[in-house]
Amino acid sequence: VLSIYLSFIIQSRESFERSVKLFLFAMLFEAIFVVIYTMLNFDHASGYGKIYHPVYGENVNSPMVSNNLAIGSSVCIWMLFDRIGRLRKLCLGGLILIALFCAVYLAGRTFFLIVTLSLILLALIKPKSFFSVKLLFSCLVFLVIAAFSYDLYSSYLEYLLYRFSNIGGSARFELFSDGFKGLVSNPFGGYSVDQNIEVTNWYHNLVLDTARLGGWPSLLTLLFMLLLTSATLIFKKEAGWGFGFYLYIISFVIMQQDVI
CA-to-CA distance for 18 and 22, rounded, in angstroms? Predict the structure, then answer.
């Protein structure tokens, strides 16, 4: 956090925004590399919980990889609606398609939530760029590519759809329910995660873990900071506010399902 603030202080807004994009692109490329390496070297029906990182020499958390794909793809989607050359837009579109294929293999539900949220935010922040003939043409191209390459990802898609259909009975949903009950009944925090649900010390949720550790005082402080930041981004509307607000909302949503 301190390094980000330091970068913001010593750089112009344009340089800082460029640095953030490069950082998120690096996360995206790493996630794609790890997923493709796993696909080529292991015969898994799905990559969920089975992602191997060749640099670390061990399995890594697949939801984390999926989230890296999500936030990196959201930056690509934002840049598609910037005034950039056709070749760069073509490369960004290709990256998004590769990330989408990797996300299907990972059966990451959050990825698709984030991509949908990205499109909604773009429609609100850049309505003139978003609602255009180019977008319609891009959607048609995507559908054609998806149809012709269906055999490539059909087996992975089945497991992804199963995970979506079973969302109400997942351990993550039960963790959120347990965390909310603890939040309501323990105003000063200090409670722990029900180990019968999952053997973990965290709810993997920014709000619930804040309440668990510091109770309502810490939670109210967090909410005040979030509201203050949102109000500043929305009402001040300095140059470049759109990308900052866009990334802020997406990051906040990701932190509701994966913090630790």
Answer: 6
**Residue ranges of the chain with per-residue pLDDT less than 70:** 1-13, 132-137, 147-153, 166-170, 233-234, 236-240, 258-260
How many angstroms separate the CA atoms of 9 and 176, rounded?
37
Residue carrying the six token digits 């990196």: 72
Cα–Cα distance for residue pair 86/206, rounded to 1 Å:
39
37-52: buried (b, 16+ CB within 10 Å) or exposed (e) per residue? ebbeeeeeebbbeebb
**H helices present in the chain, as ranges:** 2-10, 13-41, 62-80, 86-106, 109-125, 127-130, 133-148, 150-165, 171-185, 206-231, 241-254
DSSP string for residues in 65-85:
HHHHHHHHHHHHHHHHTSS--
Q: Are 143 and 97 a contacting pair, CB within 8 Å?
A: no
| Residue 2 pLDDT | 44
